[in-house]
Design brief:
9 strands, 7-stranded antiparallel sheet, two-stranded antiparallel sheet, disordered N terminus, 273 residues, alpha+beta, 2 domains, PH-domain like, single chain, 40% helix
């Protein structure tokens, strides 16, 4: 059980302290009592004794407690969400902390959405990947994790001619003929562009990335991928052999890129065993 001396070193008050200093010490006591993740009856008794020691009124102490408890819970929440994930253990800590302070619901709609997204991200990054039905002819032991409508683009290059004459002077000589003074040169320049391969279905399995479209089909082993760039509306994949391909999803889906990254990492890990 904690006591006042464990929370904040209590010095004789002597002359009355300034109100700000009293509040600061009371806030420190609240934070110290909350740091173990729960505010129990013993903690409440300790805080009540310290409140009397500081000479705070019950109303003022209650207002400070509500404000500091909310601030502390918010700090713990931000710390848990720093990596974009919320594990079941972290979720339980938040639930216990919120319930123990007795302040009622703590999360607004925006925060609740962030928590739901962080829980889903944790499951996709750490837990079992989802399994979906697929009409593709999958290999033995192969399972599909996600399928989405997508448009595929392959990075290509083409050469174009560029002419440059510098400063020139054009003079008429006879009708229909002009004399142009200056220099004329032609150079070749390579331009990168995205060539559309087609629109179709993009499927991620535990072993392959499969794109099927009326115009073109692309299949690559996950172990042949050397880099993945994630976007809100798609992914770009670089292979050991072949040109980079970008898949733009029909509907933005951040989970798709995370599932691809996770399946890619798992496949690489299996290949290294």
């Amino acid at each position: 059980m904690m006591n006042c001396e464990d929370v904040v070193v209590a010095q004789p008050l002597g002359e009355p302290e300034e109100g700000q200093e009293i509040e600061r010490r009371y806030r420190l006591a609240i934070t110290a009592l909350l740091c173990d993740g729960v505010f129990c009856e013993e903690d409440a008794a300790v805080l009540s004794s310290f409140r009397d020691f500081l000479g705070l009124s019950g109303e003022a102490a209650g207002e400070i407690f509500r404000d500091e408890a909310r601030s502390y819970i918010r700090r713990r929440l931000l710390a848990f969400l720093e990596d974009g994930r919320l594990s079941p253990d972290e979720d339980a800590v938040l639930d216990d902390l919120v319930a123990s302070v007795g302040l009622g619901p703590m999360w607004g709609e925006e925060t609740a959405e962030q928590l739901a997204k962080a829980r889903r991200t944790w499951r996709l990054a750490v837990g079992p990947l989802p399994v979906v039905a697929s009409s593709l002819g999958l290999l033995r032991g192969e399972t599909a994790h996600v399928c989405a409508a997508a448009t595929a683009y392959e990075e290509r290059t083409r050469s174009v001619g560029v002419s440059y004459g510098g400063l020139t002077l054009s003079l008429p000589i006879v009708r229909g003929v002009r004399f142009r003074a200056g220099q004329f040169g032609v150079s070749r320049q390579s331009l990168r562009y995205q060539h559309q391969l087609g629109r179709g279905d993009l499927t991620i399995t535990n072993g392959r990335l499969i794109f099927t479209a009326p115009e073109r089909a692309v299949t690559m082993k996950l172990t042949s991928i050397i880099d993945v760039t994630a976007y809100n509306d798609g992914v770009a994949v670089q292979r050991t052999v072949g040109k980079p391909i970008t898949f733009v999803l029909g509907h933005p889906d951040e989970d798709f890129a995370l599932i691809l990254w996770r399946a890619w990492q798992d496949a690489r890990g299996q290949a290294s065993i």
